[in-house]
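Saturday, quiet lab. Running sequence design on the structure tokens for the scaffold JK sent over.
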């Protein structure tokens, strides 16, 4: 131990064999941290404990959650029930829906007959104009051939 004291020194004196070396000292003399923290001197200086921020609840997707959809749109469950009835075979709502679809398709066909006369309508009218010019040109050629 005497050799260790010479090599590293003691807390009171430095190390004779190692220049500039001192033994590390304890940071606290009294290590009873709990008693120090809870003492009235320390507690009187501390700020009061902060409360953690309140977490917002997770937002629910109204397209997946019927309760969330009902909050946003109170008519949603009624509409959903009507849709279910429309899909039922033989129900009055389903027959009504089929009638509306038929009427819409018939109106579409009527409109297409009046307004749309086929994809090549423009091309046909364009070609008729050229045919008329071609006939006039042919008549002129014949007239010139007869004169000669």
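Result came back. Writing it out in full:
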């Amino acid at each position: 131990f005497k050799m260790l004291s010479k090599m590293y020194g003691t807390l009171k004196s430095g190390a004779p064999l190692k220049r500039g070396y001192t033994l590390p000292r304890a940071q606290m003399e009294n290590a009873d941290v709990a008693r120090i923290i809870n003492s009235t001197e320390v507690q009187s200086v501390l700020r009061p404990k902060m409360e953690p921020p309140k977490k917002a609840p997770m937002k629910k997707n109204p397209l997946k959650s019927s309760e969330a959809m009902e909050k946003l749109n109170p008519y949603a469950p009624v509409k959903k029930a009507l849709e279910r009835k429309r899909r039922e075979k033989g129900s009055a709502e389903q027959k009504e829906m089929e009638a509306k679809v038929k009427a819409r398709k018939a109106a579409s066909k009527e409109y297409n007959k009046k307004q749309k006369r086929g994809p090549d309508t423009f091309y046909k009218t364009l070609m008729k104009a050229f045919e008329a010019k071609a006939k006039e040109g042919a008549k002129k050629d014949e007239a010139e051939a007869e004169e000669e």
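Notes for JK: The mean pLDDT is 86. The CA atoms of residues 139 and 145 lie 10 Å apart. Ask whether to fix the surface positions before the next round.
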